[in-house]
Amino acid sequence: MRHLAVIASLLLSFQAVADTIDFGQASKYNAFVKENYSVTSSDVEGRVAVGGNLYVDGGYDIGTQIIDFGMGDGPSLVVGGDIVKTKAGNFNVYQSATLPSPVLGNVVIGGTLTGGPNEIGTLTENSTNLPVDFNSAFTHLENLSEQLSARTAYGNVDDQGWALLFSVDENVVPEDGVYVFDITQQQFATDWYINTDGMTDNATFVFNITNENGTVIDFSQANVFLTNDANPTDWTNPLSGYYNKGSANIQPPVQLLYNFYGASQLNLNSDLYGSVLAPTADIKSNESTIFGQVIGKSWEGNMQINYNPFDPVGTPTPVPEPSTFFMFALAFVLMVSRAKLSKLMAKIKLNNQAVCLA
Q1: How many Å separate Cα 276 from the centre of its chain?
Q2: In Å, how far from its chain's centre is CA 345?
Q3: How far is 9 from 209, CA to CA, in rounded Å?
Q4: For 140, which DSSP code?
Q5: DSSP per-residue codes, 170-184
Q6: What is the mean pLDDT of the chain?
Q7: pLDDT at 99
Q8: Does 4 score more than 90 pLDDT?
């Protein structure tokens, strides 16, 4: 019975850890892509990690605000494959592009860099020790996306046709401060209004987004407005007001995470004010801006990616890799085996004592 209790405890602790929201190895990257990353223009304010090849067919900047926003140390760009630079325009990798004099950023790649012109700091080619394990990172991220998609929705979605209105029951407050809304592409509207009355302070919103007709999702959004019961369609407090292109952003009063579990392709067609979790999707973007982190299978397009790290309420506990759970299981098996061995040795000892007495 005691062993069953230990098993239950291990399983429950594993589940409790797995339900937290933590991007793992992707946490410190503005863009984190498993396979190829293809662009012709625009820039990224933070770090970028690419598991496949990076194709720059024009001019592109990476890491323009790393020092400015206090993003810490480390290479500005990590690429598992090659970097291929073609056509006119500079490919620049920075730690900062806005200080009195620009500070170039370091690059670590598993392959080689061809083409130019390029402006970078230290380039490490043919690296056999990348700072990112993309396979384990995306195993974690795909599990996270699945877990979030299965979470119980805490919120209500009122489809007005021209807008979506989000609200919650003030008597139901999630312990982790994470409110979940399930919506489909068929419900999309230009403006989203989030009624914050009854919500915990500094709330995190997870939008589980699917397409009833398949795994390709076209996502457009004009703005997100924070409202209240008095005026649920008030447009005077837009989330966009907390962000400014090219300058340090004010900490937003809420965090938004768009979760596209199971999507095979994601088309981003407008500005977004939150992070994108689409680990199985080929992301194609137009010339707009996202204020948040981007996680996808691949990336193609010229959306400007600005720094707004996903920072949910509370301190997230990292989701363990599957091997961690197996280590728990192995430890349990060893514990049970040791207990059985102790009983066997005790029985042998008793039998020996009985023989001696006889």
Answers
A1: 7
A2: 52
A3: 33
A4: H
A5: TT---TT-EEEEEEE
A6: 84
A7: 76
A8: no
CA distance 163 to 88: 42
Write down the domain spans for the chain.
2-16+320-357, 136-306
Contact 235, 252 (CB under 8 A): no
Among 256, 290, 263, 284, CA closest to 181: 256
pTM for this structure? 0.82
Q: 93-140 pLDDT, tens per residue?
A: 999 998 789 999 999 999 999 999 999 999 999 999 999 999 999 999
* Tokens at 337, concatenated: 């085996």
Q: How does DSSP classify residue 319?
A: P
How crowded is residue 331: how many other Cβ atoms within 10 Å of its Cβ? Answer: 12
CB count in 10 Å sphere of residue 223: 17
Contact 225, 173 (CB under 8 A): no
CA distances (Å), origin 70, targets 73, 78, 105, 163, 331:
9, 19, 14, 37, 41
d(CA 120, CA 92): 6
Structure tokens that stand for 356 in this block: 């001696």
Cα distance between residue 41 and residue 59, in whole Å: 5
Cα–Cα distance measured from residue 248 to residue 57, given in angstroms and rounded to the nearest whole number: 28
- Output the six-digit token pair for 37: 């990353």
Q: Which residues contact 98 (CB under 8 A, 6 or more apart)?
A: 64, 65, 68, 246
